[in-house]
Amino acid sequence: MADDVRFSSAASSATSPAENSHKGWVMLSWTFVLVPLAWGFTQTLIKAAALFT
Amino acid sequence: MALLSFLDRDRIIAKPGFNRWLVPPAALAIHLCIGQAYAFSVFNKPLTKLVAVSQLAPTDTLRALSQSKLVDALSAAPTDWSIPTIGWVFSLAIVFLGLSAATFGAWLDRVGPRKAMFASALCFAGGFFVGSVGVYYHQFWLLLAGYGVLGGIGLGLGYISPVSTLIKWFPDKPGMATGLAIMGFGGGAMIAAPLSVKLMEIFHGMHHGLGVTGTFVTLGAIYLIYMMFGVVTVRVPAPGWLPRGFNAAKHTGKLVASYNVSVDDAWKTPQFWLLWVMLLVNVTAGIGVLSQASPMSQDLFPGRVTAVIAGGFVGLLSIANMAGRFGWSSFSDVIGRKATYLAFFTLGPLLYILIPQSGRIQSVALFVLCCFLILTMYGGGFATIPAYLRDLFGTRQVGAIHGRLLTAWSTAGVLGPALVSYLGKYQTDHGVPKAHQYDLTLYIMAALLLVGLVCDLLVRPVDAKYHDLDGPVTGTMATPTLTTEPTRG
């Protein structure tokens, strides 16, 4: 769409020193939410595997 | 009261050095919990056998039976709740989701996300606790008031609370940011379904209620604690904050607002109602596939798709739903919001029409592919709409505007299943063979998506008379008063 927004990859990858701070907390936080999600995803995938067996 | 001041907006303004990548996990913590709503159906069978099971002694033999086997073995007592009755609990929760999001959206924008997340956690967990009392005493009104009303309010508050905050933290990729959070809503069901089944296995036999009472209490406690992680972690950016290197000029276009529209003005604009209809038709069409995925797969491919395989197929669709939420909304940052919905509303009808064809040529692969893509677009429609609203109305009251738009979801939550059920009955009454009973429903869903296509094509920038001249412009607004220098915040 010509009249719509497009984002340049340069802007999208913009980082700042702040984005590199508290790396430990960031990793811990993401682990806290991604572990249950991964568990649920695996359970669903196991169920979905019936479709292909 | 001093304790509650911890929830105030001015207490959560990010200090210099705060890493914005801490905010998506806070949002995910909320959405992963409230996404449980989509897994409520795992309680359907046990809830219809509560009276019957209470009349049996919990003998060792019964304990040895698995939850599902026991439930299947029992016949419901005459006073047991029926499946359509139980269905009202989920429907009411979705109605209250929309109503609370619409009512409390402006309050959320005023008090900030922490207070709203806190209220959401109390309501959502409280809904489970009240609901468990209803299950224990077999009082349906308590289950409705608990999970349906209180839990539904928690759903609505939780759904919208992190969205506007994420948009403000990620003006360079708002679609991806909101997609991350709303993906959590899809993922929440994936966690809740197996977790609930395991909890019912644990609690079954301990006391009456097939383990549902204990499961409700445990889920309420787990969700309360987990959502508190989001409450504690969430921060809002300082006024005028923008990420380093962010160039607002690169993110502008005819459909990207360089102004703000207040929530009270937004819903007077045709753009709001066009997006409302787009969300309505996208959700209604998605429900058309979701609600009949299992029986449809078995009826279209008799002898090839069994009940077990159909269960796997439904699992695959929930993966598609979740993947679409993140994938399509992130992709919308590249191609734009209007183009993303154009893809939904042009590709979607073709896929709906292809489903009956896949039955005629007996191609399971084509059927699975069509349904998978449809469900990615169903999820994508939910996740991309906040960014579309931000493009059209600015960031200042996008949370409140999003809240009001979610009434479309509530409407679809009632309209969709009713339409599917009515059309199914109509086909059965007219003696249509099983394999063709879904055709009419699917063609109507395809037509609904074409209505969405027209709406999307009609979307234009908001008329200048609605632009809000008061108040500071925030987020991506390209004004000389803002600087991209204060990168820490």
Brief characterization of the structure:
Chain A has helices at residues 9-12, 23-48. Chain A has 53 residues and is mainly α.
Provide keyphrases for this structure.
heterodimer, A: 53 residues, mainly alpha, 2 helices, disordered N terminus, B: 489 residues, 68% helix, 0% strand, disordered C terminus
Question: Can you walk me through this structure?
Answer:
- The complex is a heterodimer of chains A (53) and B (489).
- Chain A is 57% helix and 0% strand.
- With 53 residues, chain A is mainly alpha-helical.
- Chain B is mainly alpha-helical and 489 residues long.
- In chain B, 68% of the residues lie in helices and 0% in strands.
- Chain B contains 20 helices and no strands.
- Chain B has helices spanning 23-34, 44-47, 50-54, 60-64, 67-73, 83-111, 113-136, 140-160, 163-169, 174-203, 212-233, 263-266, 270-290, 293-300, 307-335, 337-360, 364-393, 398-405, 407-429, 439-458.
- The two termini of chain B are 27 Å apart.
- The relative contact order of chain B is 0.15.
- Classes of the chains: A mainly alpha (53), B mainly alpha (489).
DSSP strand tally of chain B: 0
Order of helices and strands of chain A: HH
Give me the number of helical elements of chain A: 2
Question: Can you tell me the overall shape of chain B?
Answer: globular
Number of DSSP-assigned strands of chain A: 0
Number of helices of chain B: 20
**How far is the first residue's CA from the last residue's CA of chain A?**
42 Å
